[in-house]
Design goal:
The protein contains 2 helices and 11 strands. The protein is of the alpha+beta class.
């Protein structure tokens, strides 16, 4: 009987912890009128994020986002170097990272080690913590970079 009560208590505790989890998305938005080339590298192979999806920038702030998976001609992944290259059409957004229970730039480091955005208005390159802090927190909790 004691074992059953302990098991139930552990289960309830686990459910309470999992219910408090949040997932923040790191998104690059191409607000220019030309294609944007994105290249980024992860710190760890174990933390490699491969769920490459896009959405129209107009639908980005909707609560029910309808992401679409990238076609094979829209990205390249080099698992050896942990590098991803993708193309974002004008007025589209690309999700490149998800963090569970992310508490902000000051308390944690993202898994993104390098980030390069190359478009009609120039190239932006960021490394280390700078690659993380370029993402600005939005009202919905997501973190975004807007390339103009």
């Amino acid at each position: 009987m004691k074992l059953k009560i302990k098991s139930i208590a552990v289960l309830i505790f686990a459910l309470l912890l999992s219910a408090c989890s949040t997932v923040e998305e790191f998104i690059i938005v191409n607000n220019s009128n030309a294609v944007l080339n994105v290249e980024y590298r992860y710190k760890s192979q174990n933390l490699f994020f491969s769920e490459l999806k896009k959405i129209s920038a107009d639908n980005l702030m909707n609560s029910d986002k309808k992401w679409r998976e990238l076609s094979v001609d829209e990205y390249q992944i080099d698992e050896k170097t942990k590098t991803v290259k993708a193309i974002i059409a004008p007025h589209e957004a690309l999700i490149i990272e998800k963090e569970v229970n992310y508490r902000g730039h000051d308390s944690e480091e993202s898994n993104i080690e390098e980030l390069t955005l190359s478009g009609i208005n120039g190239t932006l390159e960021f490394e280390g913590k700078q690659a993380q802090t370029q993402f600005e927190k939005q009202e919905n909790g997501d973190y975004m970079i807007f390339y103009k």
